Amino acid sequence: MSHAGLYDMGNLAAVCRSADAMGFGAVHCIMNPSDKYKKSQRTAAGADKWLDTRLWGSTADCLGGLKAAGYQIITTHLSASSITIQEVDFTRPTAFVLGNERAGVSDAAVAMADHTAIIPMAGFVESFNISVAAALILYEAQQQRLRRLGTQGDLSGAQQQRLLAEFLLRSVS
Questions:
Q1: Sheet holding 72-76, edge to edge
Q2: Alpha carbon distance 56, 104 (integer Å)
Q3: pLDDT digits (tens, 9 = 90+) for 67-88
Q4: Do the beta carbons of residue 27 and residue 16 sit within 8 Å?
């Protein structure tokens, strides 16, 4: 999961809580050092201890790195060619990009995306809060992987053992 140019750090904390709660392991954030951010007293409820987080200085570096690692890039963005999140193949390694609360996903992120996706809505509001959108997407990905693969993860047995050892170490520090 990647977040581009977030403004409200409380929303980022909520996204991290959802990611950890649903068993995802990493969050990547694109944060321009010159941007101003709204500070928050909300916490990630310890999720930051269990997630691998990576900060990137640019959209091109983040998405380029994820593509080079074999991830498909999905941005949340409304366009004529957008697909629904239910149409995304989450059985593939996937990084989805959520934009900031003010301007949405950047043009650079949309240009680098393999697909743009929307979360279907039935009401009259135009968008979900970013933390709600992330939770809905994470839940769809988790459920799709469980239905289609029988598991939500794709780590080998050896990778699972290394991760367990790392988490055990984190739990005592």
A1: 52-56, 26-30, 2-4, 94-98, 72-76, 115-118, 83-84
A2: 18
A3: 999 999 999 998 999 999 999 9
A4: yes
